[in-house]
Write a structure and sequence with these properties.
The protein is mostly helical and about 140 residues long. It has one domain. Helices cover about 80% and strands about 0% of the residues.
Length: about 140
Amino acid sequence: MTRYLHRLDVRELASIFVGGAVGAALRVELTTQYLSAPTSWPWAVFAINISGAVLLGYIITRLQDRLPLSTYRRPLLGTGFCGAYTTFSTMQLELLKMLDHRSYILAAGYALASITAGYLAIFSSTVLTRRIRLRS
């Protein structure tokens, strides 16, 4: 245990904390500004998760291809900001609300669309970022 604690990078943890605080604050602000009924599509959470996937694909691809892995930008932006900005747990809560209100088709569609669009978003942003980088 003591040996593990010596390997902790306090600056890396601080960067994750700061990025997470900013990402979570932005997510909370957006989800409280754009509330949805339990029987309607939760557009705010959906948009947050998809935009976060696009951003994560860009950030990780760009930083991995250009900067040394030891920089604190990746933990700040990828793990911290995107990790707290996007939220699988809120998506699950939205799904539970839909199921509680017997909106089964809506719940299934939302789950399928969120997962599919999330994967497509991260894949597309990664491919696009690499293509743009190769051209420049």
